[in-house]
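Researcher: Structure for this, please.
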Amino acid sequence: MEQYNKVVKSELESGKRMDTIFFNIHFGMTGKEFFAYCWEMNKKGLFTDGQSNTAVLYRLNHNELKYPASLNFYPEMYENRINKMSAVFQYDAWAPWNKQLFSDKLLADVLNLYKKWYNKGNPFIEIKVPGKSTVYVKVDANRRITMAVKDDMTVQVNYTDLLTEKKFKK
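Model: Predicted structure, token format:
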């Protein structure tokens, strides 16, 4: 945890910004811009309605992971601008008898994918939480990415704009 705190302090003091999330979505994007962008991606067949029509779905079927998977994501807004993004990964063929598709294996695969997607800046820090899953954290400038097993089936990845979060804490 000490390493994480040092990285956060250093990155926030740098004055740099890193607003990129994924798929050209970024912190500061307005709700209107986000919905218009997702609609355009939907028309191109890249995004569709996600879980219970409460998220955006992107299918990872292009060898990004070991098996076909789904990524459901949806932002949180602060003053009508994206300040957080929640993303949930799941292997499409998950079932209680498919042990190779459980979230512990998925976590390792998603971590490897993210090391490719976010190959610049600081490395992921492994934080062992007693009695819980290991959490992986990457902080570059104001962007924090956290990744952990959510349940047997899914891996949760959260993006947070630390500068906006700092405003909340005041």
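Researcher: Any notable elements?
Model: Helices lie at 2-13, 31-43, 103-117, 162-169. The CA atoms of residues 106 and 155 lie 7 Å apart.
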